[in-house]
Structure formats: structure tokens, C-alpha cells
Amino acid sequence: xxxxxxxxxxxxxxxxxxxxxxxxxxxxxxxxxxxxxxxxxxxxxxxxxxxxxxxxxxxxxxxxxxxxxxxxxxxxxxxxxxxxxxxxxxxxxxxxxxxxxxxxxxxxxxxxxxxxxxxxxxxxxxxxxxxxxxxxxxxxxxxxxxxxxxxxxxxxxx
Length: 158
Known about the structure:
By secondary structure, this protein is α+β, with helices and mostly antiparallel strands. 34% of the residues lie in helices and 20% in strands. The two termini are 29 Å apart.
């Protein structure tokens, strides 16, 4: 398993953290031996989100508190490839191929929304589970103190 991904999953909202760990391992095991799934982002602070929002060329429409990453309810993925068989997984790819589709179908089957299905701003690396909340409602819960703190991160209570 990918240590970086496991560390990132530890920052997910406690409501999804355990299932993400299980799902990550299950999904990874469905990929060929030369392909590894990595979570490139899970929790993202509002400051990190704002910096990403300002980046050009544009990579997101979501400013601070407008992304499910800010609430620990989203993750982005990348596929790593071991092209020479030495076990190092030296190549990262965001090319949508059969392995990407396998990952997307797996997480969609577990109740996650896939950004690759979005109509306006497709975001193929992105997955999220909102529990029926939109960002405005989550931000309101945050502002009203309907929160939990875990691992030094404050999340809205769900």
C-alpha cells in the first residue's frame, strides 16, 4: 500500500475515514500489479483552497470553504505506474484509461460522486461523499460551531 495515501486518508473527515481506508485497499487490489492508486489530495485547508482557486491556468471553480476537500469529504486520485517492474512506481498519470474507469466505477459503486461525471467542469481525479449537504450548509454548520475536531483539524459535524 502507498504510505502517502494512508497518511492522507488519516486527514479525511472521521465519518468516512475508516471506509476510505478499506475502499482504498480494495480498489488498489483490483488494479494490475504495475498500477497503484494514490490519493493526491484529501483534506485541504481553506488557505490551500484559495491559493488553488487563484492559480492559472484555472484548475478549480471552488474558493475557500466551497470545496468538499475543505470539509474532509473529498479526495483526488492519480495512478502511479511501475513501467520497468522494479517496484518503484516512478510514473504518475492523469490519463483517463481503463484503469481510471475501474477506479471511478469502484468508488461510484460505494456511494461517491465522481467529478468525471460533472457536466460543467469535469474533474476526473475528484471524488466526494456529501451526505446530502452542499458546501453552503457545511460552511453554515462550521460557522455555527456544529463541529468536531480530530487530528488538529476542525470538521463540520455530520
